[in-house]
Write a structure and sequence with these properties.
This protein has eight helices and two strands, in the order αααββααααα. It has 161 residues and is mainly alpha-helical. The chain has a two-stranded antiparallel ribbon.
Length: 161
């Protein structure tokens, strides 16, 4: 958090307390980002995403996921994304960017083994836990871009079950 010491609590009237708590509970600085630096810089990006800025979701590419690969901050970032969704389906542009990001995360290769979930399994678990809110938030929107993304997410999660 640029300009803030670690004891300062960040807040925004646009970010529900539960989402802020999900961001704050992770030690981002101790995780290696996909760009090779500490993932501490993702905290700002996730705050911007939680505030509803669609570009912030797309900015996670290369840091949390890249093409078919997940990077170490992926499960924590996925938890934040699902907290954003669970706080109430966001406005249209934000909703589409959030669902696009979830679909991109789930379209990566499963890096787990028969004995552990891996990054992919951890992300899928966050999404699976939020599936009822995901489905409910899109009821009545058939044929929309958001519904298409959600159908893709539900289809992938169904394959993982």
């Amino acid at each position: 958090m640029r300009g803030m010491d670690k004891d300062t609590v960040r807040s925004s009237p646009l970010v529900p307390a539960a989402v802020g708590a999900e961001i704050a509970r992770h030690d981002w600085a101790s995780v290696e980002c996909g760009c090779g630096r500490s993932a501490g810089h993702l905290e700002d990006t996730l705050w911007h995403a939680a505030e509803g800025h669609p570009a912030a979701f797309h900015a996670l590419e290369g840091h949390v996921f890249a093409r078919s690969r997940l990077w170490p901050p992926a499960p924590a970032a996925c938890g934040v994304l699902m907290a954003v969704w669970s706080a109430g389906p966001p406005r249209l542009a934000t909703r589409e960017a959030l669902l696009w990001t979830l679909l991109a995360l789930l379209n990566t290769e499963d890096d787990g083994s028969p004995y552990e979930a891996g990054l992919y399994g951890q992300c899928a678990a966050f999404v699976r836990a939020g599936l009822p809110q995901l489905r409910g938030g899109l009821a009545g929107r058939p044929g929309s871009v958001s519904a298409a993304y959600a159908e893709g997410i539900v289809g992938i999660i169904g394959l993982c079950a």
